[in-house]
Amino acid sequence: MASLTGDAAQADAAGDACADADAASGLAPGAGASSAALDRCSRLVVKIGSALLVDAATGKLRREWLKGVAADLAAIRARGAEVMVVSSGSIALGRRVLGFRRGALALEQAQAAAAVGQIRLAQAYAEVLEPHGITAGQVLLTLDDTRERRRYLNGRATLRQLLGLGVLPVVNENDTVATDEIKFGDNDRLAARVALMAGADLLVLLSDVDGLYTADPRRDPQATRFEVVDRINPSIEAMGAGVGSDAGSGGMRTKLLAAKTATRGGCAMIICKGEVDRPLTALAEGAPATLFSAEVSPLNARKQWIAGMKPMGRLVVDAGAAGALRRGKSLLPAGLRGIEGAFERGDPVAIVTLDGASVGAALAGYGDAEARAVAGLHSREVEAALGHPGRAEVAHSDNIVIWDAETAGAGAAQTEETE
Q1: Does 67 carry a binding-site annotation?
Q2: What is the pLDDT of residues 350-372, one digit of tens each?
Q3: Residues of the chain with CATH 3.40.1160.10
Q4: Known binder of ligand: residue 197?
Q5: Which of 277, 284, 340, 377 has the fewest beta carbons closer than 10 A?
Q6: Within 10 A of 105 (CB to CB), how many other CB atoms are there?
């Protein structure tokens, strides 16, 4: 059986294929596909719902179960992967402390419960991860944080910095301030957005069901679980209606919506049963699950998105910077020789050389005014020029697309649109 430290060949041997898989329906057969995906992922997001974290009868945290998850996360990190968690549970924990009755809460009550519960939730993760030498970091987001460009970039930078420091980010919806207009409403879709924000290549939803079925397996004994879903089409979406609903706010429909978001952005997704001890170990050892295949790689999805955007301005670079960019480096202030156009941080810009040759496209790390202020400066001079520390890069390598010989012409044509 495959383990969290086993190789992909072992993982491929685990599990059973779906005999009824049909290419026309968007489904593909596979043996042990989910365990293989877990084994080879380099950046993982795990979503944990309230129903798994909090005992419904007592309202108390299921600490022993969470300790098992912490051990799983530690094992995945030990083999070199980066790990994040998207966790529900703050309202469920806080309502017990405040003595709220079971059932729907008014918005103000839910926000109060979240304020109390978030402290306990963060403390619980810190306590179960600490014995493994892992530092937990809390990140609270709302829907607007993932769809407004500047806030999205700030969130992305924070997650990247935490992962770089070896911290395990624990993300939750910021229910203390979120209203109906800015709420996700379920953490399945939040997890998908966070996975794309962080550039993850795999998202695992720990659920009360072990995958996507042709019908509700609790009502139809003939229902068949799909091992792999290669693409989500209308017939797949129809299978999510009323199937395998969670005790929390999400159900199979929200999981399929999450899968569409994740896979189109380059992140594969797995639905597996979380109501077991060491659920990620069980998944690695071939427990039943459904894998939704990514349509492209996370990096390619992001690069395609950047390449397809109309530039708001141009960054003019010297020959040395152009060469460094072609080697996969970030654009530093020292290599910047000119700014054209008006743009804000996060806006798409073209990158050109002093003689006008098109190099690529990027998302700007500075607005045009600050970019002009730092152009040509060494990193140690940036703070004096701006009056604050600024950023190391005018454009980070993750946010840069370099044209190859085949796409240089298209890039030049795209650049001309800004003139």
Answers
A1: no
A2: 999 999 999 999 999 999 999 99
A3: 8-297
A4: no
A5: 277
A6: 18
